[in-house]
Each structure stands twice: as structure tokens, then as C-alpha cells.
Input
Amino acid sequence: MKILILGSGGREYSIARAIKNETEDHELFFQPGNGATDNLGTNLNIKDYNELAVFAQENEIELTIVGPEAPLVDGVVNIFRAQGLTIFGPTKEAAQLEGSKVYMKNFLAKYNIPTAGFIESDSIEDLYKFTDTLSTPIVVKADGLCGGKGVIIAMSHDEAKQAIGEMLSGKSFGDAGKKVIVEEFLDGFELSMFAICDGDDYILLQAAQDHKRLHNNDEGPNTGGMGAYAPTPLVDEELYQKVKDRVIVPTLDGMKKEGAPFEGVLFIGIMVVNGEPITLEFNVRFGDPECEILMPLMTSSVSDMFLKASTNRLNEIKVEFSKQYAVGVVMASQNYPYSSSTPAEIIVDEVHHEEIANNTHISYAGVSKEDDVLYANGGRVLVCVGLGDTIKQARDRAYLRCGQVHFVGKKLRTDIAYQAL
Ligand code: AMP
Ligand code: GLY
Output
């Protein structure tokens, strides 16, 4: 197939890598891709979605896969579908599940999907009043997309009120903060679950755990994610079943009733409290770095799964998973997540050890290429992935691979998957 992938991160690299490893030969295009995706296909520079749809038509692209949320919320799927193109992802309307936290919370409440108790409003008085009824910590969220920064966990009522004020005034997040959610704090363990959906049917992938904080022991500032592993032993069959019955099925049914059937990746951020899965949030795309560890665990065709999901035919296929575990360790640049860093040359040692060569790989993210030299030029630079028969083996292998990657200022956590060990 000729396949176009939108995005530039490790997530998109890992999807492309999985597709390239299939027995069938595929030709890949990236918009825009990164300094390493051009080893897997052709990087484009066509920012306008209408022009990109013309490119897809003229070049007979058979499937487009959208990585990040922004093009989905902007309606790239609507534009491609209007031209008769096959594209994997939700429409603009369905992408509201991520694009607006107010839409998402009201949807969860309407369809009785368990979520943290909340109020959504643009009135400072109402938000303050609800805040006063909660005990600390208190969670304050901006409605719109804030690049993963729109959630404040306030340790006092005063801090919560200050965050509310700064969001409503537009000071902290501009228009994205014009409506605000205040909700109760849930104490439990967090999961990332991913359902591939075609509007009617779904395939639930293995449960993963992400590591959002910059430093070991979940300390330091929030990041996009510093590492992940899957499948997590913290989830048993009963919990998978609860997520299916209480979250995924009612969400697919509900979105049909709302006139916006959900196609694409439903990313469910879950807090497990006393064995019960409570939905923290939805995203309408793969998690990053979760995608980088889930792709290598899929033993059936990934491109066929995305194609069937885009054409309402998921019921025709059976998706298969490896029995192994995957651990992914993010290497970030010097100043991440605060500011950009000076581009640094990346040196990757040749892997001579057969066990490491066969059971690890690198998914490249914030990298650029000049004269065939790779430079770290983004926040999260790359992800070293290890596979193994146990989580410990997968993790040891991932870290051995990390030791063979060098660039000035490289930053990584050394405790990825600690929850499972
Ligand atoms: P969100 O963007 O809604 O996933 O929030 C980002 C992170 O904030 C989540 O991954 C959780 O770690 C944390 N969080 C969000 N909502 C809550 C909540 N109600 N209780 C506890 N932690 C939360
Ligand atoms: N790793 C979490 C996310 O992609 O939002």
C-alpha cells in the first residue's frame, strides 16, 4: 500500500517502523516526519490540509494515518473524506472528546461513564463555590487543547482559586481557558488504554503505564511522558472487562447517538480506584511514548488494522499480540521540558551483542538530519525500546540500548516500569 502518516514524533516513527516490518511491501510518506523518518519513506512539506488531500489523490495514497490531535481537531479527516480518501482518525466532531474537556466531561456524565465529580463553568463564583466543597488536592482543568499543560493539581483552596482566575482571564492558556473544570482528586493508579475503533466495533490493545514526571520516583515537572511499558500486570481480565463494558461500549454507543460515530484511536486515561476504572480523560490519538511500546507487541498486520478501522470493517479481522513485554525509555534534550536546547549530534554505537541487537530498537522523535548526521533538536529526542519475556528483561535490554546512545545533555529516567517490578 501507499500510506501517508501525519506527524513528526516517535509515535509516528513507531507506526511506520511496524508497517515497514510487515511482509507486504509498503511505500510511506510523512507530513512532515523528522530527521529519521526519511529512512523509512519520503518526508513532505505540505502544511495545508486541502493541498495534502490533493497530493494524496494524485499519488494514489490508499491510507492516511493521523498521529497527533491537532490535525484531527482541525478537521483533517473531514477534508480527506470529502475527497473520497481513506483516513484513520476521528472526524472534527468526534475529536471534541479530546478538543474540549467540557464536551468530554458532559458526555461522560450524560452516558453514565464513571468519572471524577466535577463542575464546568465560565463563572468564577460558581467555580469558587464548588471548590469550597472539595477537600485538597483539587484538580483544575482548562477546557481546550493546552499541549498537555492544562491540568493543575492544586494543593490548597487558594492555589486552586488562583489557577481558576488565571485560566478564566486568559492569562494562562488564552481562549483554551475560557471555560474551566474543577474536579475531585482521585487517588489510585493510572493506566493508558487504547481502543482501535471503526464507529461500531473496537479492538482493545494491551494496557500500558506512562511516566509523566521528569524525574525518578515521579518527581519534578510534568512532561509528555518519559517512558512506558506494556502489558502491565496491574490489569487482570476482570478490569479489562470493566473497561470494555463501562467505558468503551457506552462511548461508542453514545457517540453514535450524538451523530459523531467514533473512528480512530480512543485513548482512555484511567485512574483505578479500589479496583474500579474511573475515566480521567479521553484522547483521540495514540499516546506518546505508549505507541512506541504497543506497536512492536503487535504480531498481526498494523496497516491492515488501520485500514479496516477506517472502512468500518474491524469485525473482519483478528488482531494478534506477542506474548512478550515492551519497555520504552525516553531520552530528552538538556532543557526539556522548560525550553529548547542547542542541537546536539547524536552518536549511536553499533550494537555487536546479538541479544541486544535482536531485542531492542530506537524510535526517533525530535531529531533533524544534516549531511547524514542526526541531531537532537526537539524536547523528546528518541525512545529506546526493549522487548523481553519478562518486564525486567525488557527493561534491562532497553537500558543497555540507552547506554549506546550519546548526545550532549541527554536526560532520561532510570526507573521506567518500577510500578511492575
Ligand atoms: P489529563 O490531561 O486530564 O489526563 O490530566 C493530566 C494528568 O493529571 C493525568 O494523567 C493525571 O495524572 C492527573 N489528573 C487529572 N485529573 C485528575 C484527577 N481527577 N485526580 C487525580 N489526578 C488527576
Ligand atoms: N503519554 C501521554 C500522552 O501522549 O498524552
The radius of gyration is 21 Å. The chain has four domains: 2-90, 117-184, 189-316, 325-406. Residues 210, 224-225, 283, 287-288, 290 surround glycine (ligand 2) (CB under 6 Å). DSSP finds 13 helices and 25 strands in the chain.
